Amino acid sequence: MANIEGSCHCGTIKLRILGGFGENTRAIVCHCSVCATLAGSLFAYVAQVSRVNFQVLQGTTKAYKQPKSEGMSGQITRHFCGDCGTPLWAESEAMPDGISVKLAPFGNKLPPGAEIFWKNAHKWQKPMVVSEAVFDGMLIWEGGYQVGAVATSLMD
Ligand SMILES: [Zn+2]
Ligand SMILES: [Zn+2]
């Protein structure tokens, strides 16, 4: 597959995913309160990519180390553009091989595959996916707990 490139709104940070997203990769909709706040929106729209395929072509992000909370199995660091504030990606010590990228900088082209932390959604929200793919919390998967694990399970 072709590489995919994306950038923050002001263009300071430019990113590339070598080989693009896998053909069957689906987006994860995360309704957790941290994602909602940091997206400035109802939810985060993300996908997991392999760290070795993830490149920063231009610019240096600001990194926010998310305070550790109960149940967090490793430090989560969230990268954003320090000039325009666009959230770009997150990485977790619990999943050193993966990067959770925000999809808006890449054009939001992936269809949704699962929604997590649905327990935080409001009564007036409706899921974008079938009910079997809506989860109240984050799924634990093979020791890692990042959203990519959910995406992987749905791909197979
Ligand atoms: Zn920017
Ligand atoms: Zn989240």
From TrEMBL:
Q: Which Gene3D superfamilies match?
A: glutathione-dependent formaldehyde- activating enzyme (gfa)
> What family does the entry list?
Belongs to the Gfa family.
Q: Which positions carry the signal peptide feature in this UniProt record? A: none
Q: Which residues form the CENP-V/GFA domain?
A: 4-125
Q: Which Pfam families match?
A: GFA
Stored PROSITE patterns: CENP_V_GFA (PS51891)
The UniProt entry, under PANTHER family, shows: CENP-V_GFA DOMAIN-CONTAINING PROTEIN-RELATED, GFA DOMAIN-CONTAINING PROTEIN
Q: What is this protein called?
A: CENP-V/GFA domain-containing protein
Give the species this sequence originates from: Daedalea quercina L-15889
* InterPro entries the record matches: CENP-V/GFA, Mss4-like_sf
Listed GO molecular functions?
carbon-sulfur lyase activity; metal ion binding
- What are the protein's UniProt keywords? Lyase, Metal-binding, Zinc
